[in-house]
Amino acid sequence: MGENHRDSQGRPIVAVTGLGIVTSLGQGKDANWEALTAGRSGIHRIERFPTDGLRTTIAATVDFLFDGSFAAPELSEKLATLAAEEAVAQSGLGVNGDFPGELFMAVPPVEMEWPQKQELAQAVEGETDYDALLRVAARHKHKAMHELFLFGGVAEHIAEKFGTKGSPISLSTACSSGATAIQMGVEAIRRGETEAALCIGTDGSVHAEALIRFSLLSALSTQNDPPEGSAKPFSKNRDGFVMGEGAGALVLEDYDHALARGATILGIVAGCGERGDGFHRTRSSPDGKPAILAMQDALADAGLTPDDVDYINAHGTSTPENDKMEAMSCSAVFGERMARLPISSNKSMLGHTLTAAGAVEAVISLLTIANGRIPPTINYNTPDPAIALDVIPNEARDAKVRTVLSNSFGFGGQNTCLVLTAGPNAA
């Protein structure tokens, strides 16, 4: 290999030098990896707000950080901060609050919650529509509240804490947001715009209004008892996803930049694929075409073929429609090999961390490569005969994994797939 390391398309190779994660299973890579490979669930009964009369009363909330006063943006920022601290510390890059690269951050859609709406409504004369509440919030008396619910606020605070360069990018592409943040970091490095990027997906938005909205869409599981048995991806008796909270952070670098400073290379983001469709606001296209194309695009971007993939980290939400669509789409890409290609869903234990999911699952995918062990799909007790997949049922499995395809398929037709590979010195 020459002095300048390039991929098959002549672009800078994008290395991963830092990983950080916080979920309902705990804080940090060690706590999460131990729990995931043990098949433990972080889903439990909701205690932070009353659930009387609600059809869904469970979630994978990060209660060990929640002090009772956090609004969703505040908890999302706390989660992001902890994940980023772990990733930056591992990378050894910019540990003194002077990160030499850009910030790409997936954050949940920000909207005032009921307590704030009630407070502001008392100050509104006449119409109490959302725009009127925003105008009241913008007045000096409520300036802090107004700033709290600005969409770019969380990323601005993270950029200030870590000293990232340029204008921080806030993005929201529904359930694929975390993967999109990584894709944007990869593309910036490939274009030579930056030698490093801090990519984060975060979501701390389990509150009553959000839960009710997803419930009204008939998207959530109502199998509340026992809570840890509710999320059952690819099972015949699956009935919806479970809301979760968490954050995943990755430090990406130009491979040569990382090599020059003697960094440990944890893996490579070899390929990204993204496809959108306007089929429906919440439903996936029933023919799976956008998901199929996103997977094929990611593999082509990595210069790999379907035969090179050792494991698929599934989107695997546990909704009847998504799991069927994903299984069909994977079969279209991988053919007969799909019956024996390992695929599992972290969401069976973490719930669906929504905006954070793509980043959280990318971190777990790289841990899978590093440890040679695949986390299971738990609660797989009633197989769906229409989904003939090797879902790593109920117990983790040792396996040599060098290449992972991580899928993220979001509401509104957002589909993002990442190909993650072992570093060049991996055994």
Task: Note the main attributes of this structure.
single chain, 427 residues, 33% helix, 11-stranded mixed sheet, two-stranded antiparallel sheet, Peroxisomal Thiolase, Chain A, domain 1, Ketoacyl_synth_AS, Beta-ketoacyl_synthase, 18% strand, 3-oxoacyl-[acyl-carrier-protein] synthase II, alpha/beta, 13 helices, 3-oxoacyl-[acyl-carrier-protein] synthase activity, Ketoacyl_synth_N
Can you describe what's shown?
This protein is an alpha/beta fold and 427 residues long. It has a single domain, classed as Thiolase/Chalcone synthase (Peroxisomal Thiolase, Chain A, domain 1, 3-Layer(aba) Sandwich). The protein contains 13 helices and 15 strands. The strands form 3 sheets. Strands 1, 2, 5, 6, 7, 8, 9, 10, 11, 14 and 15 form an 11-stranded mixed sheet that branches. It has a two-stranded antiparallel sheet with strand order 3-4. A two-stranded antiparallel sheet has the order 12-13. A hairpin with a 3-residue loop joins strand 14 and strand 15. Helix 2 packs parallel to helix 6, helix 7 packs across helix 13 and helix 10 packs across helix 11. The longest helix is centred in the N-terminal third of the chain and has 20 residues. The mean pLDDT is 91.
Please summarize what this structure is:
Keywords: Transferase. This protein has 427 residues and is of the alpha/beta class.
Fraction in beta strands: 15-25%
Instruction: Please report the first level of CATH classification, the CATH class.
Output: Alpha Beta
Q: What is the structural class?
A: alpha/beta
Silhouette: globular
Distance between the amino and carboxyl termini: 18 Å
Number of strands: 15
N-to-C SSE string, H for helix and E for strand: EEHEEHEHHHHEHEHEHEHEHEHHEEEE
Number of helices: 13
The Cα radius of gyration reads 21 Å
**Mind describing the biggest β-sheet?**
11 strands, mixed
CATH architecture annotation: 3-Layer(aba) Sandwich
Question: pLDDT average, as an integer?
Answer: 91
* Low-pLDDT residue spans: none
The CATH topology is given as Peroxisomal Thiolase, Chain A, domain 1
The helix fraction, in percent, is 25-40%
- Mind telling me the CATH superfamily name? Thiolase/Chalcone synthase
Query: Domains counted in the coordinates: how many?
Result: 1
Keywords: Transferase
Domain Ketosynthase family 3 (KS3): 11-422
Protein name: 3-oxoacyl-[acyl-carrier-protein] synthase II
GO molecular function, one term: 3-oxoacyl-[acyl-carrier-protein] synthase activity
